[in-house]
Structures are given as structure tokens and as C-alpha cells.
Input
Amino acid sequence: MKDATLATHAGYGYDGERTMSVPIYQTTAYAFEDCDQAAARFELKELGNIYTRLTNPTTEVLEKRFAALEQGAGAIATASGAAAVFYAFANVAEAGDNILVAKQAYGGTTTLTAHTLKRFGIEARYFDVKDLEKMEKMIDDRTKMIFFEVIPNPSVVLTDIDTIVAIADRHGVMTCADNTVSTAILCKPLTLGVDITVHSTSKYTTGQGAALGGMLVEREGLTQKIRGNARYAHFNEPDASYHGLVYTDVPLPPFTLRARLALLRDFGATPSPHNSWLLIQGLETLPHRMPVHSRNALAVAQYLEKHPKVLRVNYPGLPSSPDHALAQKYFKDGMGSGLMSFEVATRKEAQRIADSVKLFSIVVNIGDSKSIITHPASTTHQQLSPQELADAGVPEGLIRLSIGLEDPEDLIADLAQALGEN
Output
């Protein structure tokens, strides 16, 4: 089935009342028929709901629908995008291990990997997405994951996904791509050989800034990469915390299974059923919204690249972009999504422009139906050092735009008055 059909039908075949809208199962726990059934579910002899921290029927529909759109084997929803990214790392790495992380990543991901994971004894090694030969040299026998963003926020610098996958497979290392900005509608990294995708569903999935959420999806056939792989011994050895379960021996997707049974169980960053329902509503229109976001963003980018005060525009949909060929290769119809950034001369000028717009709102979210403007160096990336800002492609004069669903002529007029036409 095509994306528009999957987004409205996948994962739901009606409940007992045959409701057209997926029901909100707003419950913490579930009543068992008897003690034997309760014991069987805890022993994994019978699959079924136990507690909403682990599973919930509403969230299950969201997970199945997301997996279908990504063409993945399984998915697990989390309470936020940050939780999804953390779970991706925590599911593979332990003290003494390392992960490779793209320098061109969201500031929150950089903070997580540079500081919080460090306290867990996990080392983050940073690579430039434009220098993958150097990245390969960073891999050693304790490397557990290579992480990058399909469309980095806010630098919007693309990488060669095929090359990253080839390097990772050569060394038996898992890859994880943050597909938040491109979404499964524009790009399907799992079909390109990426092992795991993560999303902040708080962005384009909900589409109206209405709910926090995150998602991890694993590709079909990942078991073959993990089974017998010394890097991932904990997937191949009995899990003493769950009746000696060996994840690669179970006919279920192993990465998301372990994330559910170990990480959701122990860390508990689980989405509420109501938020899952809101995200399901957003998914139904996502295939129709992403082309509009992309067309609007291209029109705005074309205007900005001609403005005398604009030093540089970062948008892969532009034919002048150095990443245009990669966008044509990896994204549906070459669409570039709604995220873009542009640079002006100084921090002061960037903040003046952000303060002068009328239609755009100063917000640190992206992927909303309404257009958003952000000065990353003073907000989302404020915690980064000057060197980290430079590495992430976030100069002081950078302005990030999340282009919404308004008429692009109105958005351009708003930016024109804020920039000041010469």
C-alpha cells in the first residue's frame, strides 16, 4: 500500500465496537482473567497487556502505523524525541563503549552525548558528515553505534547515507538515523540499509505542536546483523532480568523488543495514550502536509538566496545547494522538507530579524503547521561551546526557519519587511 493509505489504515482493524476513530485506552493497568493468565504474561508465555508503561492498545496502533510507513520490522513509542535518542544509545552501549555521533546534530543530542552519557561511562566520538573516511578510522572494537541526522537541525547539511551504511556494515556496527525532519514520507532510511531510525514525533508527526512523543523503528533483518556479533553480546546471551530471555532467539524484532522489556520497564519514558491518539491523528494527514511544507520552504529559500543581506541559505531543495544531488537521490521527488536556515552578518542582526517578523513565531519547536523562527546560538544550541557551535554548523548569525502551511507569498512578505528591502 502507498503512504497515504498506510497513514490512515495501518495497525487498526476496528475494536469490538468497530469505531472509526482509534479508541483512547486511557488506563494505567489491565485486569487479568486469573492468576494463571497474569503469570503467563509476565513469563512471556502469553502476549498481552500488563501495564501501560510497557504496552497500550492506542500506542500499539501508533507503533504499527509508524513501522508500516518506515517499512520497518517493529517500532516502539517513547514520551519524547529525546527519550527515543537516549534509548537508541542505551540499548546498545554500556560503560567502556563508544558511539560515533555526527557533529551536525541537534544541540540537545550533542549535550546528551557529550555530558550525560559520559557520566554513564559511554564515550561519544564526533565526526563530520562530509568526512566519512575519517569517521571510519574512529571505529574500534568497543564502537556500538553510528548516529547521524538525515536532515540535521539546524545546519541542514546532508550526508551520503549509502557510504555510512557501507562503512558500518563492513565493521558490523549498527547505524541510527534521526529521521525527524524528513519524516518517513520524504525518506525511508531503513530501505537504504540503516538499522534504526528515531523520530521526535513532537514535530511533523503531530503537525500542530499538540503532543510530545518519540519513536524508534528497526529495519527488517536486523537480527542477522546482531546474532553472533560480539559487539552486541547482551542480545545473544540470556537476560537475567527477564527469565533468561535471549533476544536474538525470539521471532520478534530484537532491538525494539529489548527497548520495551528493559528500557521502558526500567526508565519508564512512555507516551500517554492520549498523546499517542493525537499523534495518530497527525499521521493521517502527514503524507499530504509534507509536500506543502517542502514547496513553501523552497519558495522562501529562493527568495532568501537573492537577498543582499543573506550570506548563505541552507536548503537542499535549492538547485544551488551543494547537497542538492543528495536530496534528489534520497528524498521523494527531491523535496527538502520544511526546515531551512540562513545566515546574516552578526548575532545582533539575526536577533533583530527574529524580533521583527509578524507571521513567524519565535518558538524552539519545528514541524508545526504555523511557521517558526529561531536563533539557535542563543536558544536551542546555547549550551554549546564556540567550537561545538562551529562544528555543528551554527554560526552566531544563523537563523532557523520551520516553514509552515501558510501561503508562501505572505511568508516572503513578512521576511522582506523584517530583513529590510534594499
